[in-house]
Write a structure and sequence with these properties.
Blueprint lengths: L8 H8 L6 H10 L15 H4 L4 E6 L5 H17 L2 E4 L6 H13 L4 E5 L8 H9 L3 E9 L13 E3 L1 H16 L4 E6 L6 H15 L4 E6 L5 H15 L5 E4 L5 H11 L4 E6 L2 H9 L3 E6 L2 H16 L13 E3 L21 H8 L4
Parallel strand pairs: 1-2, 1-3, 3-4, 4-5, 6-7, 6-8, 8-9, 9-10
Antiparallel strand pairs: 10-11
Protein name: Sugar ABC transporter substrate-binding protein
Family: Belongs to the bacterial solute-binding protein 2 family.
Main location: other
């Protein structure tokens, strides 16, 4: 029998010392996304007006109750106006029956493409999607799945995906840097929304892989329970464990319910999140509980989604990843987002001339 070699005292000592947090990598990540975004074309230029002359798009968002979805829809409408084709944004309130009504309307009114926008789970309307495709419509999604960890279902014609993992890693890296590798975080998100999983897993995974002295736990808070369960869960957690130093909601709109819980608990915990929702940026500018938000221009997202859809309708090579870069807002630069903040200010406007040139409009 082959004997394993004995470990030396030096080797045993090395095993006994936990690995240090990778602070250099975390700082580099923060530095990278603290730079003003620049436009990178997602594909080759094409004559958008010529190929879209007789085509029209129908957009069904997750819910118009979320300003995030509304802002992406506005960006998509702006792109359609620039190119000169019909685009309709359907009204929904997180109700699958309304999504079905939208699909039926798109078929009845002769639209060429249906886009499920901003987190709508298409599997809930898969039979209706099949009917639409049989009727000749293309069915896609914008800003729904993660570009690297989630598969687009076979019953879809395509999707313009987001690097949600990147945003989760930015959130985790920020907390690491601010605490010098001693994060004790509460992570929250609504499991029923498609992008939650990759962001949640990226936050937890980054801390686990890069920060041996960091701890984090996750609480599922469904979208419709944010105002009730969100506040109570955070308040109870902070009272039970006053050492929690960060509350990391997957979506920053949850901050309106989390901030009161932090105040009532008398905690010094800070909020760090993803999206760039204007009222949350205003909270950052006016207070000190929201410390950092990693956002992206939603007008840019909308234009990029339309770009991918046009390429699909025009028979061009597909684009399956949105080219919308992340940007970090803190109290040092949040005023660039506007006073009051908007979904597009603060990111620069390189995407507008970028897309105009890409689509042959100048």
């Amino acid at each position: 029998m082959k004997m394993r070699p004995l470990l030396t005292s030096a080797a045993l000592a090395a095993l006994a010392v936990p690995a240090a947090a990778d602070m250099d990598a975390a700082r580099a990540l923060i530095e990278q996304y603290s730079q003003l975004p620049t436009f990178e074309a997602p594909g080759e230029p094409f004559d958008a007006q010529a190929c879209m002359a007789d085509k029209k798009m129908f957009v069904i968002p997750l819910t118009n109750a979320n300003p995030f979805n509304v802002a992406i829809g506005e960006g998509m409408a702006q792109a359609a106006e620039m190119v000169g084709f019909e685009l309709r944004n359907w009204e929904t309130q997180l109700d699958p029956t309304q999504w079905v009504q939208g699909i039926n309307t798109a078929m009845a009114e002769g639209f060429d493409l249906i886009d499920f926008q901003g987190g709508l789970p298409p599997e809930l309307v898969a039979p209706q999607i099949a009917e639409a495709r049989e009727a000749g419509l293309k069915v896609t999604a914008t800003h729904n799945w993660d570009a690297t960890t989630q598969e687009v279902p076979d019953f879809m014609d395509g999707a313009a995906n987001t690097d949600y993992v990147m945003f989760g890693e930015i959130i985790a890296a920020w907390a690491m840097v601010q605490t010098d590798g001693n994060v004790n975080a509460l992570v929250l998100g609504p499991d029923e929304i498609t992008p939650t999983a990759p962001i949640r897993d990226a936050i937890l995974g980054y801390l686990e892989d890069n920060c041996p002295d960091c701890t984090a736990r996750y609480i599922n808070v469904p979208f419709n329970d944010w105002a009730t369960k969100g506040q109570s869960e955070v308040q109870n957690a902070l009272l039970a464990d006053p050492s929690i130093n960060y509350v990391l909601p997957v979506y920053d709109s949850m901050a309106q319910f989390i901030a009161p819980a932090i105040q009532i608990a008398g905690s010094d915990a800070k909020i760090v999140s993803y999206n760039g929702t204007p009222f949350v940026l205003d909270m950052m500018r006016e207070g000190d509980i929201v410390e950092m938000v990693a956002g992206e221009s939603l007008g840019w997202v909308g234009m990029a989604g339309v770009d991918a859809n046009m390429r699909l309708l025009c028979g061009l090579p597909p684009v399956d990843t949105l080219n919308t870069p992340a940007y970090i807002f803190t109290d040092e630069n949040v005023e660039t987002a506007g006073v009051p903040a908007t979904y597009d200010d603060g990111y620069g406007d390189s995407h507008i001339p970028g897309f105009r040139k890409l689509w042959g409009l100048e």
